[in-house]
């Protein structure tokens, strides 16, 4: 029996043009459940329902929307066992600590953080200019489409993750497009979200779910006049097609696409603690079978005896560590293809590569090497993203060439520089950091990039092709909410007609507002 889609508050049969099954990557076998490929009729119905929900949500107090997010978070925590079992079967990710102890509490926690921002209103940047009679704040934009990735079925899921939480907290309903790698897990989340909406008296179309569409319908969806914005995490090729369609219609779309996350290890750092950095790099590169969007895919060293020792030690760690399970046959095939591409460009295969395992989605841990001159001869080719348990080491002639390599990089989510704790690399650090900072969304020092802390100061974004826009983050409340909002100015609007955030009285008593150039939680002074 084919699973039902969630549209307009009810689970119903899809207007289907086909079906698909997820694969258990631990066995390479299809899972029994079938899921529909929706026609445009399903998208159209979801858009109508979302548009109606968006109108209703504009009249709701922020506290009510926040209550929904909190109740949903509680329901996720209570359903921990079933969610973990489902995600493990569909993704091969470890039940513990990865899913049960890491990703699930992070997911419910970021929903609660979004709820707190929604209540406070601090994300909306309320601004009041008493002299001109103009007041402004960020407000809801309209229905948001969320395309979730394959590698974080909870924390970035289309109806559970950060984009979902941010869109709802900003006052928008969400149409979730499940990732085909974990449709059953996404369905379970949608059931919990619908139950939370019913319990809190929210419009039930606050969350809707379809599993897959044809490419043309996906492009039509993100460009539809009823859509406010789209959040997408996935492959560069598919994301750019959606972006082209959205851009042509003037619709905002926020993309997370690809990133090799360069790590530079400066010479004195190698000399003083090379063995320690080997441990940190190998652990980071192979964690989760390398399937983190911040996985260190490129390491840049300066040639010399310490670099040779580092490379041999990493090679040994990769060769002797068991290869983890990849998320799906598609991920395994893409990794194999990317490694072959890097070899075609001239990278030397130090260990790994070869054929995929037949009885599970896996490939041997893979380490490649190229010289700085090789990299600079074709930077685009050597930046082919090998998503999974593979990394490329670039051996530069000197720090000057390191800077040239960094300057030739595309945009990335993260960039890291390891330096000498005693200060021996300080001058080189400054030179490399000068080239690196414009290329990345997050700069790290003496720390591997794997993992993204749920912090208000976090930027999980970066210049293209890391994302489609360098000025926004997908992680970090309250900043992540602004992607799904529009700035509205109220010019000479009567006090009784102003939104709650812009009235003379600070109704929460805690919301920071910029009044006549000064951030304050006070009421507007009497004139």
Summarize the structure.
The chain is of the alpha/beta class.
User: What composes the largest sheet?
Assistant: 7 strands, mixed
Strand content range: 15-25%
Shape, principal axes of CA atoms:
globular
Q: What value does the average pLDDT take?
A: 96
Rg on CA atoms, Å? 24 Å
Tell me the total number of β-strands: 23
Number of domains: 2
Helix proportion of residues, in percent?
A: 25-40%
So, the CATH homologous superfamily of the largest domain?
Aldehyde Dehydrogenase, Chain A, domain 1
Strands in their spatial order, largest beta sheet: 16-17-18-15-14-19-20
Q: Which CATH C-level class of the largest domain is it?
A: Alpha Beta
Distance between the termini: 67 Å
Q: How does CATH name the architecture of the largest domain?
A: 3-Layer(aba) Sandwich
Assign the CATH topology of the largest domain: Aldehyde Dehydrogenase, Chain A, domain 1
Protein architecture, described:
By secondary structure, the chain is α/β, with parallel strands linked by helices. The chain has 2 domains: 31-257 and 473-481, Aldehyde Dehydrogenase, Chain A, domain 1 (3-Layer(aba) Sandwich), CATH 3.40.605.10; 263-445, 3-Layer(aba) Sandwich (Aldehyde Dehydrogenase, Chain A, domain 2), CATH 3.40.309.10. Helix content is 38%, strand content 20%. The protein has 15 helices and 23 strands. A 7-stranded mixed sheet has the order 16-17-18-15-14-19-20, sandwiched between helices. Strands 21-8-7-22-23 form a 5-stranded mixed sheet, with no helix packed on it. α4 packs parallel to α5. It is globular and about 75 Å long. The model has no long low-confidence stretch (mean pLDDT 96).
